[in-house]
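Lecture notes, continued. The same structure-token format from the folding unit now serves as the input rather than the output. Read the line below as a description of shape only.
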């Protein structure tokens, strides 16, 4: 695996020679990392200091060396991707809320506003410039996300911010909850300052075009799981505060049919009945009967969505798979896994790992099953 030492303009300065082994991991939700093992020579000690920037051939990720270890005849360089800059930027009390009290603050804001805050913190690393639009044709610069916004109007995101908590600690849970990829790229440079760009993006849905097949040798260690352990035959939702008045309860069978008169469903031996009290609704919330019924039905459907029998497949995508990283798919993309039993599951690419050592070279993605 070829790796390069980068100069202060992020351009390749030289190939890293004499590599004994490399483990290079790129991630969708959080910073990637790398480990490079070299001979422990005075020349290597001088050439690859802490803070050195490294890039793998064929990758757009830049890693920064943040640790060096010497053991016997080996020098091991480890580091993380540029996104790790956010682990070095902390939240200050009262930054975002006017009612800050104590050591933590919980508030709700648009996700694009949250992303803008992160973008501003990243820009502190550079000269404050760099608002040019990224190339819309590039996989690595996502159009209209210069400021990291998920969209012009993002969803409301509750965020608990602790004093001294890093922006990375705040960002990763939000990214995972929203299935959102995050990254930082170089936007412009005027040594010794850098202008960095924070991007939030969503992977592409390729599940109809890319199917990793067990039969075709794309998948190994395949596991098929079926379960009806939590399958519900009836959901009963009621509002304790409305007891004795109409409407105050609603039932829904396993097919999603609503009944507001009586519970008449017949349950099989494998089906469960589930009771959901809506204790968060009070008499003060009452508007009219149709609104209340819609509220209860929505809660019943939400509960029913988690109470289904399911069938899914899991496995490992092999290095010999027909589809190739970057050429055919990228971090965050949705793909299909297809087993010899004909069972298909949608999965998201969350990591890509490249390893080169004494046993050879191999690369493969890590997947996350979409439930």
């Amino acid at each position: 695996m070829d790796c390069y030492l980068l100069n202060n303009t992020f351009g390749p300065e030289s190939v890293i020679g004499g590599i004994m082994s490399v483990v290079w991991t790129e991630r969708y939700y959080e910073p990637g990392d790398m480990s490079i093992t070299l001979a422990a020579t005075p020349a290597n000690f001088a050439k690859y200091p802490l803070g050195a920037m490294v890039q793998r051939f064929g990758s757009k990720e830049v890693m920064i060396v943040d640790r060096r270890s010497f053991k016997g005849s080996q020098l091991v360089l480890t580091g993380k991707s540029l996104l790790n800059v956010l682990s070095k930027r902390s939240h200050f009390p009262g930054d975002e809320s006017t009612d800050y009290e104590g050591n933590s603050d919980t508030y709700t804001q648009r996700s694009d506003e949250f992303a803008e805050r992160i973008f501003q913190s990243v820009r502190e690393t550079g000269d404050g410039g760099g608002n040019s639009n990224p190339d819309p044709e590039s996989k690595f610069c996502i159009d209209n996300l210069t400021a990291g916004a998920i969209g012009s109007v993002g969803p409301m995101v509750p965020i608990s911010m602790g004093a001294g908590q890093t922006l990375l600690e705040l960002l990763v849970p939000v990214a995972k909850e929203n299935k959102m990829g995050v990254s930082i790229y170089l936007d412009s440079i005027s040594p010794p300052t850098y202008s960095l760009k924070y991007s939030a993006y969503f992977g592409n849905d390729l599940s109809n075009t890319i199917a990793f097949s067990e039969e075709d040798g794309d998948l190994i260690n395949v596991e098929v799981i079926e379960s009806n352990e939590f399958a519900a035959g009836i959901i009963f939702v009621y509002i304790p505060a409305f007891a004795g008045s109409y409407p105050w309860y609603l039932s829904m069978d396993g097919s999603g049919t609503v009944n507001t008169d009586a519970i008449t469903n017949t349950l099989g031996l494998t089906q469960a009945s589930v009771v959901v009290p809506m204790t968060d609704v009070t008499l003060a919330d009452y508007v009219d009967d149709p609104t209340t019924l819609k509220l209860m039905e929505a809660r019943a459907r939400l509960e029913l969505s988690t109470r289904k029998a399911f069938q899914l497949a899991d496995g490992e995508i092999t290095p010999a798979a027909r589809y190739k990283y970057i050429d055919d798919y990228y971090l965050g993309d949705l793909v299909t896994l297809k087993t010899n039993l004909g069972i298909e599951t949608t999965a998201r690419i969350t990591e890509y790992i490249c390893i080169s050592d004494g046993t050879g070279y191999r690369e493969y993605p890590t997947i996350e099953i979409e439930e």
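Point for the exam: The longest strand covers residues 344-357.
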